[in-house]
Write a structure and sequence with these properties.
94 residues, mainly alpha, disordered C terminus
């Protein structure tokens, strides 16, 4: 595993934790990591998305722009890619 792959895997795992926490554990990290599909289809509610946005912004010191299209919230990998792009390195900052 390369350093970049390890960093992405760590980031993906941390974001899955944040998603699960935003749902108060109703959607597990295992489900999020295994599914690869829509977070909404997994059961992430609009309230959970608001909690998730706050958690991501606080954890990574970024602002998620919700004024335009925010398809990056559709699935785990889209969110991970967006965070990696905004942070410039994709490494866990927590």
């Amino acid at each position: 595993m390369t350093a970049g792959t390890e960093a992405r895997s760590a980031l993906r795992g941390r974001v899955a934790e944040l998603v699960s926490g935003a749902t108060d554990g109703e959607v597990t990290e295992t489900e999020i990591l295994a599914d690869g599909g829509s977070l909404t289809a997994l059961g992430v509610t609009s309230l959970a998305f608001l909690r998730l946005i706050d958690a991501v912004e606080e954890e990574f010191g970024i602002i998620l722009d919700l004024d335009g299209p925010f398809r990056f919230l559709d699935d785990l990998d889209g969110l991970v890619d967006h965070i990696a792009e905004l942070t410039g390195d994709g490494e866990d900052h927590g």
